[in-house]
Amino acid sequence: MSFTDFSKADTLKQLNTLLNEKSYVAGTEATQADVTTYKAFQKEYPALTRWLNHIASFSEDFESLPAGEAPAAAAAAAEEDDDDVDLFGSDDDEVDEEAEKLKQQRLAEYAAKKAAKGPKPAAKSIVTLDVKPWDDETDLEELLANVKAIEMDGLTWGAHQWIPVGFGIKKLQINLVIEDAKISLDELQQQIEEDEDHVQSTDIAAMQKL
Hints:
- This protein has 210 residues and is α+β, with helices and mostly antiparallel strands.
- Among the domains are: 49 residues, no CATH class; 86 residues, 2-Layer Sandwich (Alpha-Beta Plaits).
- The chain has seven helices and four strands, in the order αααααβαββαβ.
- It has a four-stranded antiparallel β-sheet with strand order 2-3-1-4, with helices on one face.
- β2 and β3 form a beta hairpin.
- α2 crosses α3.
- About 2% of the residues have low confidence.
- Belongs to the EF-1-beta/EF-1-delta family.
- This is Elongation factor 1-beta.
- Keywords: Coiled coil, Elongation factor, Protein biosynthesis.
- One of its GO terms (cellular component) is cytosol.
């Protein structure tokens, strides 16, 4: 049975009942049945799915999160013992031993998968930067040397070329790779433009995520 087999009225309760004693929709490991059920749930309840996934990302910090006031409807639903859909677990006041064991199993599986994946790679971007000299008498090699002399954690300089812009003037076009969390392009441009003897201005010609 999958999510798509349920009627709308009982969808959440039946899905919760199905998974009460199982880690997966079918079998003992993740299968396409789980994928189909998840996608169907996500399509039917996109906002709820997004919220659950987002809040789950804070699981390691649950105890340290600041206090907050739940919406009145949610607070009332938590206090009532009726046939309303229970989004967060069993209707029983006490969690039996098997349910607790299953919970610990799921937590262990999640922790193992997270450890196996390791830390996420840093988000990076490749940028093409235009550096314009003052005039045709500007020493372009000195300009290039001064630009590449700038060192920052998370910054890697790449290939460059000289692009004619008219009247014998050539601008420097240079590629660089940055770690998004570490490098501010505004600060980098400002630092390049501090070379007032060679640099008139800088512009971002292109940028894309790696």
